[in-house]
Amino acid sequence: MTPVDAEGNTDPRRPVIYIGQAQMMTPAGALPLSFEIPAATLAEACTQFGDAARKAMEETIEELKEMRRQQASSLVIPGQGSPGGMGGMGGMGGKIQF
Fold first, then answer.
1. C-beta of residue 18 within 8 angstroms of C-beta of residue 46
2. pLDDT tens, position by position, 12-30
3. Among 43, 56, 57, 97, which residue has the least CB neighbours within 10 Å?
4. How far is the C-alpha of 27 from the C-alpha of 29, rounded, in Å?
């Protein structure tokens, strides 16, 4: 991304930022990845693309694992939380109830 000023002219006072995009295939389909590539030139960004994409994929996998852990620990037990023990929305929320 080339920085520009308010008139649309290249702004040499700010650095160029290289952004990479890729897709990670999951059982639910393709998951888009967008990531910054720490580089000073386009040639350097091209050589670092693979490592930056791998890092973005690993971070995404860790975020998905954390989301899965949070979802697994968000069980609702009737009688706890909201008044009347209905679990919000008349007990019809999106959480598992026992």
1. no
2. 899 999 999 999 998 889 9
3. 43
4. 6
Q: What's the chain's Rg over C-alpha atoms?
A: 22
DSSP letters of 6-72? Answer: TTS-B-TTS---EEEEEEEEETTEEEEEEEEE--SSHHHHHHHHHHHHHHHHHHHHHHHHHHHHHHH
Give the burial class of 10: count Cβ atoms within 10 A of its Cβ; 0-12 exposed, 13-18 middle, 19 or more buried: exposed
Q: What is the pLDDT of residue 72?
A: 84
pLDDT at 35 over 90: yes
Domain ranges of the chain: 18-72
